[in-house]
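Example 9 (inverse folding). The structure is encoded as follows.
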């Protein structure tokens, strides 16, 4: 069963926006979310036949 990457990505983006809007930043959680977003973004690209971050691949 494939994970719903788009939903996961949207959830993490919303969480990141919430964290960034807070007056006191939790940079550890922000960094973790950014790392997870990158993993999901790469997985979405793989589903479309794109490998890595190079747009010319």
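The amino acid assigned to each position is listed next.
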């Amino acid at each position: 069963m494939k994970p719903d990457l788009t939903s996961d990505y949207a959830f993490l983006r919303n969480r990141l926006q919430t964290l960034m809007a807070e007056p006191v930043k939790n940079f550890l959680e922000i960094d973790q979310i950014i790392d997870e977003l990158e993993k999901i973004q790469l997985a979405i690209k793989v589903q479309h036949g794109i490998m890595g971050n190079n747009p010319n691949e």
